Amino acid sequence: xxxxxxxxxxxxxxxxxxxxxxxxxxxxxxxxxxxxxxxxxxxxxxxxxxxxxxxxxxxxxxxxxxxxxxxxxxxxxxxxxxxxxxxxxxxxxxxxxxxxxxxxxxxxxxxxxxxxxxxxxxxxxxxxxxxxxxxxxxxxxxxxxxxxxxxxxxxxxxxxxxxxxxxxxxxxxxxxxxxxxxxxxxxxxxxxxxxxxxxxxxxxxxxxxxxxxxxxxxxxxxxxxxxxxxxxxxxxxxxxxxxxxxxxxxxxxxxxxxxxxxxxxxxxxxxxxxxxxxxxxxxxxxxxxxxxxxxxxxxxxxxxxxxxxxxxxxxxxxxxxxxxxxxxxxxxxxxxxxxxxxxxxxxxxxxxxxxxxxxxxxxxxxxxxxxxxxxxxxxxxxxxxxxxxxxxxxxxxxxxxxxxxxxxxxxxxxxxxxxxxxxxxxxxxxxxxxxxxxxxxxxxxxxxxxxxxxxxxxxxxxxxxxxxxxxxxxxxxxxxxxxxxxxxxxxxxxxxxxxxxxx
Length: 503
Hints:
Residues 1-25 and 466-503 have low confidence and may be disordered. The chain has 13 helices and 17 strands. It has helices spanning 3-21, 42-51, 64-69, 86-89, 92-108, 135-148, 185-197, 209-214, 242-256, 281-296, 380-393, 410-424, 487-502; strands spanning 28-31, 56-58, 76-81, 113-118, 156-158, 160-162, 166-167, 179-180, 202-205, 232-234, 237-239, 264-269, 300-301, 304-305, 309-312, 369-372, 438-441. Helix 6 (135-148) links the parallel strand 4 (113-118) and strand 5. It is α/β, with parallel strands linked by helices. The strands form five sheets. Strands 5-4-3-2-1-15-12-9-6 form a nine-stranded parallel beta sheet, with helices on one face.
């Protein structure tokens, strides 16, 4: 063969390698949650994904409005079977109908569905054994339905797990000693065997943010980030951050059950910006600016070097999420409720100065706010009751200790609560009364970092599902504290683990 032909072939192969494994955002995805009182139009969100080079998206359900907006985009999509559906889709006929209705139909409509998430963290400690017996049958039935629909070769089913399914034993708290939580180890092994048989990945959610919450006042803050904190030695490996330690604990746990080479996907990882003293834009920026270059440059971890498929958590703030785990639950978005960037970071490994691109052509409600009247007496009990009512039906998560509005006085907090209710009620006249305590104004009452938002206009697609996924610090095992360079913190890990196992 002529030499110039070999050169052409080499150039072609090189271009192909760069296309498949290039250091940009090829493997970077994002979780698109829809638990908001006022959702951005799906078409607006899809354009935002494109503008930011996000080529993969993970959904928690199979919302037809969202899926239709993703048609003809070439964005890879992971659709989700909700936990409440697991038992039903364990049955063959139900699984077939689910796949027909939520996968096959959209594939025909040119939606690039590549995977199905069967449940969301179904083995969470908080759930106890609620989904233990239905998860594997549901996984098997969904994959069989995909195979029967002749989609199984390109669409794989898997189960997103929380990091609490693995741990290191207290007598050897190192990543290399990773194992699966005893009460779910058999089920996880069976699922891993099935995934390996079907060439499907093992999906795990990791939240370094919870390290600071659970290890409050004792956890070394720098260990949650990527600035080269004092680490721990595990054989020849030094771990200087909790992400590497946690991920490699999972790698070791899989190796223990015979799956040393299984592909691992990070289903959720991120940092919230409000609702907790550790949740703010500055720390979120610090986390992402340490984590994203590792991902986009395919650095991997000590035990799992190279490319890792990652889905950031999450895309936009969701003001209707369950806040039982903590007020920060409504503030995981890289973008705020209106699709605007909350901090500076770059999703592009080649251009660290490339900024996030916000949602375009967002329409807001009128520039008016609802606040506490200053010209009427305020009975404290009545004021507290009206505030409680407003917060119960709106979003006051910024009041949390360390939150952006935690420093407000009582009257200012009442104004914030009233305005939140007013905006969530689409600024209806009746929603700004509160037994005569409230009034509308056209001057922005925001104070310092506490923003009195104006809601976006409703688009008619809002739906709030009680089966809302939410990472929880109470679903946080010693795996997240693996390798903490402190005997005291190892003790804390044992306490947390014991609490989770028995309460």
